[in-house]
Design goal:
Keywords: Coiled coil. The chain has 387 residues and is mainly α. The chain is 79% helix and 0% strand. The protein has a domain of 111 residues.
C-alpha cells in the first residue's frame, strides 16, 4: 500500500521537473530601446487577453491521471494563447517600425528639400555677387583710365589766358548784376522775415479762433443735448397721447361699432321684411284687381242689382211701415228672388272666407311660390272696394 501511495506523488514531481524548463530564454529579436518601449505602450492600447483558469477540484470519480491530462490540455491552450500574443506583438512591432521608418524617411526628405532650396538660393546669391564684382572691376578699370587721361591732359596742356575786351566787359556786367542781385536778395530776406512774422501772428489768431470755435461747439452740443432730451420727452408724451387715443378709439369701436352693426343688421332685416310685405301687397292687389275675378263678382251681383232697382219702391214702403224683424211677403214677388238673395249672401260669405284663407294660408302652392310669410295670430285682411 505504501509503495502504491508514494508512486503517484513521485510521478507528479517527475512530471513537473520534466516539463518546467528553468534555462534562460534567448530573445529572437534585438533588444528594444526605451523609446521603442514607450512607443509600443502608446500604440498597443488594447489590454492583453487574460488566461482563464478554471478552478480545479477533485471529485469522487476523478483520478490523478485525469487531472494530469487536464493540466496538460490547459498548458497546451496557454501555449497557443502565448503564441498568438507573440504573433500579435511581432506584427505590432513591425507596423511600428514601418511607421517609424516612414516618418524618418519623410523627415529626411523634408530636410533634403530644404537643403536643396537653400543651396539653390546660395548659388543665386553667389552668381549675383560675382556679377557685381565683375561690374565693379570694369568700373574701376574705367575710372583708372579716366584718371590717367586727366593727369596726362593737365601735364600736356598749356593754359592760354583769354584777355579779350569782350570778356572784360562781360565780367563787369556780371559784377554789377551780382550787386543788384545781392540787394534784391537782402530785400527778399526782409520780406520773408515780415511774412514769417505775419504768418506766426495769423497762426496765433487761428489757434485762438479754433479755441473759441471749440467753445461755441461745446455750447451748441450742450444745447443740442438739451433739445434732444426735450424732444424725446415730447415724443414720449405724444406716443402716450397716441396710445390713449388709440385705446379710446378701440374701446369706442368695440362698444359703439357693435351697436351700429347690430342696428344696421336690424335695419337690414326690417328692410327685408318691408320688401317682402311690399311684394305680398303687390301680389294681393294683383289678385284683387284681376279682371276675371271682377267679372265673376259683377256677373254674380248683376241680377241682384237689377231686382234691387225694380223693387226699390216696395222697399221704401216697407221701411215706412217700420218692418224690421220679419219679412212680409210682397205680392208680385216670386220665390226665386228670395232664394237668389239668400244665394248671393251665401256666395259673398264664401268669397270672403275663401279670400281670408288664401291670404292666411302658408302651406298652399301659391304661398310657397311667392315666399309668403305666416300670418300672425288675429290677422284680419281688409278688402278694398272694387272700383
Amino acid at each position: 500500500m505504501s509503495s502504491d501511495e508514494s508512486s503517484p506523488e513521485r510521478n507528479l514531481q517527475d512530471y513537473w521537473e520534466d516539463k518546467i524548463d528553468i534555462s534562460p530564454i534567448k530573445p529572437e529579436s534585438q533588444p528594444k530601446t526605451d523609446a521603442d518601449f514607450f512607443r509600443s505602450l502608446t500604440v498597443n492600447r488594447s489590454s492583453p487577453k487574460k488566461f482563464l483558469f478554471k478552478s480545479i477540484t477533485l471529485k469522487g470519480g476523478e483520478t490523478l491521471k485525469e487531472l494530469q491530462k487536464s493540466i496538460i490540455i490547459l498548458r497546451q491552450r496557454n501555449l497557443t494563447q502565448v503564441q498568438q500574443l507573440t504573433q500579435e506583438v511581432k506584427s505590432n512591432t513591425r507596423k511600428e517600425l514601418k511607421e517609424a521608418v516612414a516618418e524618418i524617411n519623410a523627415g529626411f526628405e523634408k530636410e533634403i528639400c530644404t537643403i536643396r532650396l537653400e543651396h539653390d538660393k546660395m548659388k543665386d546669391e553667389i552668381s549675383k555677387r560675382n556679377r557685381e564684382l565683375i561690374l565693379l572691376g570694369k568700373f574701376m578699370v574705367d575710372q583708372e583710365s579716366l584718371i590717367s587721361q586727366n593727369r596726362l591732359i593737365k601735364i600736356l596742356k598749356n593754359e592760354i589766358p583769354n584777355t579779350s575786351q569782350a570778356i572784360v566787359d562781360e565780367k563787369k556786367i556780371l559784377k554789377s548784376d551780382l550787386k543788384v542781385l545781392k540787394v534784391r536778395i537782402e530785400g527778399m530776406k526782409e520780406a520773408i522775415v515780415e511774412y514769417t512774422n505775419k504768418t506766426n501772428t495769423a497762426d496765433a489768431k487761428m489757434k485762438d479762433l479754433d479755441k473759441e470755435i471749440e467753445k461755441i461747439k461745446a455750447g451748441h452740443r450742450q444745447e443740442l443735448k438739451a433739445l434732444e432730451v426735450q424732444l424725446e420727452a415730447k415724443l414720449e408724451k405724444a406716443k402716450k397721447e397716441r396710445d390713449d387715443v388709440k385705446s379710446a378709439y378701440e374701446i369706442y369701436r368695440k362698444s359703439g361699432w357693435k351697436e351700429i352693426e347690430d342696428k344696421e343688421q336690424s335695419l337690414e332685416k326690417q328692410n327685408m321684411i318691408i320688401v317682402m310685405l311690399q311684394n305680398e301687397l303687390k301680389t294681393a292687389k294683383g289678385i284683387i284687381f284681376h279682371q276675371k275675378l271682377q267679372l265673376r263678382i259683377h256677373n254674380s251681383l248683376q241680377g241682384y242689382v237689377e231686382e234691387y232697382e225694380n223693387n226699390d219702391e216696395i222697399d221704401m214702403t216697407m221701411q215706412s211701415q217700420n218692418v224690421s224683424n220679419y219679412v212680409v211677403p210682397v205680392p208680385g214677388r216670386s220665390k226665386t228672388i228670395c232664394t237668389r238673395k239668400k244665394f248671393i249672401r251665401s256666395n259673398e260669405l264664401s268669397f270672403s272666407t275663401n279670400f281670408q284663407s288664401m291670404v292666411s294660408d302658408t302651406g298652399s302652392a301659391f304661398s310657397k311660390t311667392h315666399n309668403r310669410r305666416a300670418a300672425p295670430a288675429g290677422y284680419k285682411p281688409k278688402l278694398s272696394p272694387i272700383s
